[in-house]
Write a structure and sequence with these properties.
Elements lengths: L1 H4 L1 H21 L6 H4 L1 E7 L7 H14 L6 E5 L3 E6 L4 H12 L6 E8 L1 H29 L9 H30 L5 H34 L6 H33 L5 H37 L1
Antiparallel strand pairs: 1-3, 1-4, 2-3
């Protein structure tokens, strides 16, 4: 299939995206949410209807300057609410912020306040990293076990290794995208983003295993034939046989997530965007990267043997 034949093009494209992600992370880093760095989230509601956004922003900016609030994120939620995320604030500062909301032209009521200390935020960061590492480790072990009977021309553990390379690709690019979005639009990384990464890992490995399983079946069929096919041909045929299925499955999911992004609640908007980016990248890697890597490693083995 042309995908396998022109795999170098897709390697270069992925390399560009990965390098861009690392450059973005090195320069701008991530806008870490309250869940990880600690801070305060105040949510206010306007029972009679939310006033003009510019007025709310103006009043909050005045108060933020007066209490030296530093960086903060102000967002509308739904039709009547606003939330503000900032460093930890004391009782006096909280009252001043609440008053600023009410001074924006309509009476505001406190709907919710959430304060997280830096220690708890640090623990959340560690747990998030550990959870991603454990998921990746379990995936490697599962693939190695599932493909344990495949030994030629590529060993089973190499199936797992190539799947992990593809998964790293699928995680790095969404993180890089949120680094860029965080710098230009203030998008934050929180526990929902980590949840999105775990979902992306699961979705991506599902697609990859579908293709790998077809390769395994086609290898068995080829072994029973007198005229055995080359490994590159088997991989190309396997990708072609699963191509439409992978695209249709991913597109149906992405369409639902696009609807959630535009029509859903503000609280889930960044979560759905992370999933859209991750599933699109994961589908791409399952089709264009993961299987092609098997061919690359097989050809490397042949050269080494020769």
């Amino acid at each position: 299939m042309w995908i396998i034949k022109h795999r170098t093009i897709f390697y270069i494209f992925s390399a560009i995206l990965i390098v861009a992600s690392f450059v973005s992370l090195a320069i701008w880093g991530l806008q870490v949410g309250v869940d990880f760095k600690g801070g305060t989230v105040i949510e206010m509601t306007y029972p009679a209807g939310r006033p003009d956004k510019a007025m709310v922003e103006s009043k909050i900016a005045e108060t933020a300057q007066a209490i030296s609030l530093g960086n903060y994120i102000l967002r509308p939620i739904g039709d009547k609410d606003y939330s503000i995320k900032s460093r930890q604030v004391n009782e006096s500062e909280r009252q001043q912020l609440q008053a600023a909301f009410s001074n924006a032209g309509a009476s505001a009521e406190l709907k919710k306040i959430n304060s997280i200390g830096p220690v708890i935020g640090g623990e959340a960061t560690k747990k998030a990293v550990v959870s991603v590492i454990l998921v990746i480790l379990c995936i490697v072990l599962f693939i190695t076990f599932a493909f344990r009977k495949v030994s030629k021309p590529v060993a089973s553990w190499k199936f797992g290794l190539m799947a992990i390379v593809a998964l790293a690709h699928d995680v790095i690019i969404p993180i890089g995208a949120f680094s860029i979005l965080g710098h230009y639009f203030g998008y934050e990384v929180d526990t929902l983003f980590v949840t999105a990464l775990l979902v992306i890992l699961g979705f991506s490995i599902h697609d990859t295993i579908v293709v790998y399983d077809r390769i395994r079946e086609n290898l068995k069929i080829s072994d029973m034939e007198k005229d055995k096919k080359e490994f590159v041909t088997i991989v190309g045929e396997s990708v072609r046989q699963t191509f439409v299925r992978s695209i249709n499955t991913s597109m149906s999911t992405i369409l639902a997530l696009v609807a959630l992004y535009f029509l859903g609640a503000e609280a889930t908007r960044h979560f759905s965007l992370a999933l859209i980016i991750g599933i699109a990248v994961g589908t791409y890697s399952s089709i264009f990267i993961a299987s092609a890597l098997l061919v690359t490693i097989q050809k490397f083995q042949d050269k080494k043997t020769a």
